[in-house]
Amino acid sequence: MVTVKVCVGTYCYLQGGQQLAQWRNYVPKHLQDKVTFLGSACLGCQEDTAKPPYVKVGEVLIERATSEKVVEEIEKQLEGNLEL
Ligand code: FES
Question: The CATH number of 2-82 is which of 3.20.20.105, 1.20.1560.10, 1.10.1090.10, 3.40.30.10?
C-alpha cells in the first residue's frame, strides 16, 4: 500500500493541486486498490524556492508534480514492496 499526499495549501492548490480527483484516475486500474490519496496541509515549501504543486508519495516529496511523475513513483514504490 502506498499513501499519496497531495498538498492543498493555497500555493499548490492554485498551481495544479486542485486536480487531486483527476490524478487518482491516472493510476492504472490494477494498482488503484493499493493507493490511498489524501489531501495535505503545506508539505513544507519555501516561498522563494517553491516548485508547486507538491505531492508526497510515501516518504518521497515530488516538486512540480504531474500525474506522470506521481504514477511513476507509485509504481516504483509498489514494485519495491513486491521484492521484499
Ligand atoms: S503550499 Fe504546498 S507545499 Fe506549501
Answer: 3.40.30.10
Q: How do residues 41-72 score in pLDDT, each as one tens digit?
A: 999 887 678 899 999 999 999 999 998 999 99
Asked whether the predicted pLDDT for residue 83 surpasses 60, the reply is no
Atom number, ligand 1, closest to the C-alpha of residue 40: 2
**Ligand 1 mutation pick, 5, 12, 19, 38, max ligand atoms within 8 A of CB:** 12
Contact 73, 63 (CB under 8 A): no
Query: Do residues 42 and 14 make contact, with C-beta atoms less than 8 angstroms apart?
Result: no
The atom number, within ligand 1, closest to the CA of 42 reads: 4
